[in-house]
Amino acid sequence: MREWKSVLKADPTEWLLEEDNPSVRFFTLRDILERPPDDPELTKARQDIMDKGVVPKILSKQKEGEYWESAEDFYGRTKFKGTVWQMIILAELGADGNDRRIQRTCEFVLEMSQDRNSSGFAYKGTKKGGGFHSGVIPCLTGNMVWSLIRFGYCDDPRVQRSIDWIGKYTRFDDGVDCRPKGWPFEKREPCWGRHTCFLTIVKALKAFSEISENRRGHGSDAIQTKRKRALGSREHLQRPFSGQHRAQG
After folding, report:
1. pLDDT digits over 216-235, tens only?
2. Phi, psi of 131 (to 5 degrees)
3. What ranges make up the beta strands (E) of the chain?
4. Using a CB cutoff of 8 Å and minimum separation of 24, what contacts does 242-249 make?
């Protein structure tokens, strides 16, 4: 990250380090300035994320310490306000996965949304039975895997199975005459139709990218293969954004 300033007209570092946005300050210190984990400024910025600004406001609206809006409607009817959406935002903002409120949200999503048969994530479910097998969708699965990894769940066996789900079921082909047969490919045209859902591809690659190289293990070759397939599908990735896909996460 040492040469990035050379392509800019001015140096934005001072602006990025302003304390009114602790998330931007934290990521600037960590990813751009490459401060070590024990750096005092980095440590303070991480704590500031939990103490001031957007993250504590979001957490203040949490119900029963684990969900937002309605427990049952964690995805669809509470879109952008419900539990899975708040979880994604908190992960994006760098919220601390060691915080008990974050951990309870992660456990809530794993109990309510993860299909206990396939380990994909569904848009409907119950705590008793988990995510509905018929409701598993790839975009949500990618988002939840990425968020859970960010919150420190990468080594959790439940998340490991979901990573395997992405590798097994996410399609990185495009425009094929015959899509794969069987579950889940015969459901939901926007997700599993003739054209690969580009929203799904982005979320799958995002989830893969969050896995540190020393943890990728035997799946690293599969990750690289799928990445190359996705980036090689130029015609599909350049298609206009269609209303058909707006309904998905």
Report:
1. 664 556 566 655 555 555 44
2. -65, 145
3. 125-126, 130-131
4. 244/189, 244/190, 245/190, 245/197, 245/198, 245/199, 247/190, 248/137, 248/139, 248/190, 248/191, 248/197, 248/199, 248/200, 249/75, 249/84, 249/137, 249/139, 249/140, 249/143, 249/199, 249/203
Sequence-ordered strand ranges (E) for 82-239: 125-126, 130-131
pLDDT digits (tens, 9 = 90+) for 46-74: 999 999 999 999 999 999 989 999 999 99
Q: Residue 122 in 3-state DSSP?
A: strand
Hey, what are 145's tokens?
């895997």
More confident residue, 167 or 43: 43
Q: Could you give all domains of the chain from N- to C-terminal order, each with its CATH number? A: 1-52 (no CATH), 53-246 (1.50.10.20)
Q: How far apart are CA 128 and CA 187, in angstroms?
A: 25
